[in-house]
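Sequence and structure are no longer studied apart. As an example, we show below a sequence and the tokens encoding its fold:
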Amino acid sequence: MSALERIDQAVKSNPVIIFMKGTPKMPQCGFSSRASQALMACGEEFAYVNVLSDPEIFQELPQYANWPTFPQIYINGELIGGCDITIEMYQKGELQQMVKAATQSTTPEGDAA
């Protein structure tokens, strides 16, 4: 599987995912740190990919959604943006709503029959 296919699979199989330098608990850059803190403050689970531990993803991710920098945050398969946009959305209360809606839409709700 190519790096772009792995990125696509990760984006499509996780309602909320951040591609970042380092991990949410041990970020390796200030932008990744602030963006992951905003996601953590939303109080919902999210996936992450440490782009520093996978050189192919590090190299290919900027082409995936035509976004040149890290971190990159995807919600429901859509690129939300990087650090500045994420922080701005958090301050407006938009990020919390999006994250909550995305994570709740994937939880099983029982039989609708």
Notes: Residues 3-104 form a domain with the Glutaredoxin fold (CATH 3.40.30.10). Residues 30-41 form the longest helix (12 residues). The chain is about 50% helix and 15% strand.
